[in-house]
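ok here's the first one, seq then struct tokens
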Amino acid sequence: MFVENSRRYAVFEGKHFDVTKEEIRLVLAILLLSGYNVQARNRMYWDTGIDTYHPGVANAISRSRFEQILRFMHVSDNAALDVQDKFTKVRPLWEKLNEKWMKYWPQYNEVSIDESMIPYYGHHSTKQHIHGKPIRFGFKCWCMSTRLGYLIQAIPYQGASTGNTNPDLGTIRANRVENAPLESIADIKKKQRGSYDQIIDETSGVSLVRYNDNNVVTVASTCEGVSPVGSAQRWSSAERKKISIQQPFCVQMYNQYMGGVDRLDQNIGCYRISINKKKWYWQLLMWPLNASMNNAFQLYRLSPAGQEKGHLDFLAFIRSVVTTYLRRYASARSLGRPMKPSRKRRVPDDVRLDGADHLIISSATQIRCAECHKNTTKKCRKCDVGCHTNCFEIFHS
């Protein structure tokens, strides 16, 4: 998908561009690497400075080739976009991954459906602001996940046309019960903590429960009801101690399994891809890649290898994937010369101009003079750059 549509986009832009699956895999590996090995600028992965150089990246693909692939990276055909779909630029990738996530998910009975935020701070008609979320500005996405955070399905929210989600278990607003004859919130608030009211729709089998805890909540469920009633510990201000109150079974189940999407957000946030572009849809390409890596790790944890002693944690798992891609798909054709700053820029001024211990010594091979840029067999011992005898004083002043 990446290969075909990136080629189409280059033709659409009037450019000649070709790319292979191996190169796409290398680019994906570098993107994932940027989640745990963050650089202030993308080009610093190829910079030969002592504090930045990354040989694994520089030896796998050249900087110019990496930037060229990022420029044309696409997953949709610009000549066949759906004008009614606000996310048509990324829809093919989401549909493909939704299919794969569903195919391999560990099939638990309990799933969570909730909203997740994809960070975006630019201008777009679907951008949302949700106060109180760790990511307050961005694209909202409806997610269904397992308790441990495996993403089963995800739909980016674009307004009323997104389509309705119908969770089997969850809290609903008090005014969304379609005039069901539940006790009013005001009446149930007057009762003691732990009180509840339940009605069942005989046609659909939906059970509605209104429960008085720290606040009054309304729960709708197609699978659980009040029974068997459990208990919960709550602090009583009047008695100045913890007391035991009743708790319907559907509320217990909801509390136990409701945090799957939050766990997904937590996992993605740990090593989120840090390489960014100004395209509005860029984060909508990167977020599902992070989610796919999270899903792969969840499956690894359930495998025999993930159960053994000394199994990989999430970071080690991502590194294993990245290093495998960098080693397997790097080719001599894609190797490029790493970007080198000028020799003066490579030596900080505080070192070059400190006037201490700068000595001319012989170099084992010919190198470029940092001042006149001609070949020389001399270099400065402290600065470790080439320098003719007559250029030495100029370079250090």
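and now the second one, same deal
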Amino acid sequence: MDKPTHLVECETMLIGRHSHLAVPRTRREGGLLDRSAYILLSRIEIEGPMSIGQLSEAFGLDPSTLNRQTSAMLRAGLVERIADPEAGIARKFRITEEGELRLRQERSKNISALEKILADWSPEEVTTFAAYLRRFNTDIERLTGRPWPRS
């Protein structure tokens, strides 16, 4: 018999699989953002302008990885570099109007897809599911020491 954690592992693997399978379809249909840009823009949207160091700390990623990702976002016009008023010559990344627009559009597509998936669920079931997902994520964040800012 499977342990409950084995069942959770299987289901989280499948969530990753479903997300992965949706990416090529979305891109063929004119998808707007790749996964890394979506997540980085979401964080900058919440926290405001962030430096490579702040992004590195927030995500636990090597600065070279973030340099590649932010360079791609700069080329796409999703972010711009601004002076960091607290750090001399240091620069921060700020989301542009184009970045905000594309983030809103991508989030809207994601929410529409979730609404289709959850169409037969009651509002109470969706709320309970969201609460469990939040608890799952916040426990991961507690263990890694990298909380995601929430409203």
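notes on #2: The helical segments are 4-28, 35-47, 52-59, 63-75, 97-117, 123-144. The first strand starts at residue 79 and ends at 83.
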